[in-house]
Design goal:
The protein is of the alpha/beta class and 427 residues long. Helices cover 35% and strands 22% of the residues. Helix 12 packs parallel to helix 13. The longest helix is centred in the C-terminal third of the chain and has 24 residues. It is globular and about 65 Å long. The protein binds 5'-deoxyadenosine (5AD) and iron/sulfur cluster (SF4). Iron/sulfur cluster (SF4) binds next to helix 6.
Length: 427
């Protein structure tokens, strides 16, 4: 979501007449996009703001802004913490950046723009911005109404607002005309996408509309909430060949007691049933998820239930986190907080179990011929790299440049973070 927001801002600033630099020492304008979903993300952002302030001290004419969820959360308090900041830009105000910059340069004033009650201000596009890219994002909705008890998102991204399907289709067409082959639809909870102003469009309908776009090879989406994953959406995976067989479906905990305290709205059994439905479509359907350890009151027994679920499901990959208190959330005031050492120890047990499962799932690809969307040269060089339909990295050797093409690769080796194979020529 933040990458998408940064790209939107980049496009607006190019339309405004600015050019990008890849060295912040040369910049006249620096805007830091921030995340506050976990304590660690917030610490990283604060230290980056501190470093950028030192540039401003040397070059006082530089305009320094902070955008994203920390800007939304802290508002004018951020100016007290970091007095050199010129602009605090909330999550719904990105679209008004050019006007705000005019005010800052003309009036020499500092601006805090963090109204969350407004509909997100439409963002401009800059045709050609994505010319050298193969894949891109489109945000289809902003905000979240779920109020999971640990989560700060509803407070910093506001209530759910869906964009019109017309706007989304136009953005998708523009991306495809710039050479984009794969689009990931973004929302805090894409399943509750619903646009009802001039027409009734829900998420499965939106997927069907996008799947008809000429030149678009792949569609993905993130994030889905297990409580809202409908049979209609599951059937889209069977029906639409451009919809990749991968879902990111956060489960957070394997203990029903903790799930209730988290206000997640589903049980462990219901989650298992959903996965069975998805794997019924095809056994190699990739499932990734988010999980947290050390939620207030999480006992060793609760943690064992999480481990048990991880072993039962065999996720392709997991993003795992230590619970951290977020300001203003329900769980901040819950008692029986879990000790930091205990959280770290649970996290490392969980991660080492998942590592083995990830490798086991990757090994299952060996001996298969898979479709790969080529993204360019691999990091280590010498090979080309891309992703298969299940979103796994695949590296292979080729003498010809294939960036942007869909090719077939015979998978020979599997590692924790990637697969390796040989190109099948003649496709
Ligand atoms: N502490 C730890 N992890 C959190 N997440 C969200 N809020 C918190 C928190 N307070 C995790 C969840 C979510 C992911 C984006 O971040 O697992 O799915
Ligand atoms: Fe946060 Fe996701 Fe729950 Fe919304 S659904 S409150 S974004 S964890």
């Amino acid at each position: 979501m933040n990458e998408y927001d940064s790209d939107c801002l980049g496009q607006q600033l190019m339309n405004y007449g600015l050019a990008a630099t890849d060295n912040h020492e040369n910049a006249d304008l620096i805007i830091i996009n921030t995340c506050t979903v976990r304590a660690k993300a917030q610490q990283k952002a604060f230290s980056l703001i501190g470093r950028m302030m030192s540039i401003k001290k040397r070059k006082p004419d530089v305009i320094l802004g902070v955008m994203g969820c920390i800007a939304q959360q802290e508002g004018s308090d951020l100016l007290k913490k970091f007095p050199d900041i010129d602009l605090v830009l909330g999550t719904r105000e990105i679209g008004s950046t050019p006007q705000l910059l005019d005010r800052i340069t003309k009036g020499k004033e500092k601006i805090v723009a963090t109204d969350l009650s407004i509909k997100p201000i439409p963002r401009e596009r800059h045709d050609g911005y994505f010319r050298n890219s193969i894949k891109s994002y489109i945000s289809i909705m902003e905000g979240c109404n779920n109020f999971c008890s640990y989560c700060i998102v509803p407070y910093v991204r506001g209530r759910e607002v869906s964009r019109s399907s017309k706007e989304i289709m136009e953005e998708a067409k523009s991306l495809v005309s710039q050479g984009i082959k794969e689009i990931t639809l973004l929302g805090q909870n894409v399943n509750s996408y619903s646009f009802t102003e001039r027409e009734d469009v829900d998420f499965p309908m939106l997927l069907r509309m996008l799947s008809g776009l000429d030149g678009l090879n792949r569609i993905r989406f993130t994030t889905s909430h297990p409580k809202d994953l409908s049979d209609d959406l599951i059937s889209c995976f069977k029906e639409l060949s451009v919809l990749c067989p991968h879902i990111h479906l956060p489960f957070q905990s394997g203990s029903d007691r903790i799930l209730r305290m988290m206000n997640r709205g589903y049980s462990r059994e219901q989650y298992i049933e959903l996965i069975a439905k998805l794997r019924d479509i095809r056994p190699d359907f990739a499932i990734t998820s988010d999980v947290m350890v050390g939620f207030p009151g999480e006992s060793d027994k609760d943690f064992q239930m999480t481990i048990d679920l991880i072993k039962k499901i065999e996720f392709d990959n997991l993003f795992s986190f230590k619970y951290s208190d977020r300001k203003g959330t329900f769980s901040e005031n819950m008692d029986k907080k879990v000790d930091e050492h205990e959280k770290s120890s649970r996290l490392s047990i969980l991660q080492s179990i998942q590592k083995e499962i990830t490798l086991k799932r990757n090994i299952k690809h060996i001996g298969k011929e898979e479709e790969v969307l080529v993204e360019g040269e691999s990091k280590k060089g010498g090979q080309l790299t891309g992703r298969n339909e299940t979103n796994k990295i695949v590296n292979f050797y080729s003498d010809i440049k294939l960036t942007g093409s869909l090719v077939r690769v015979y998978i020979k080796h599997a590692f924790i973070n990637s697969l390796q194979g040989t190109l099948i020529k003649g496709h």
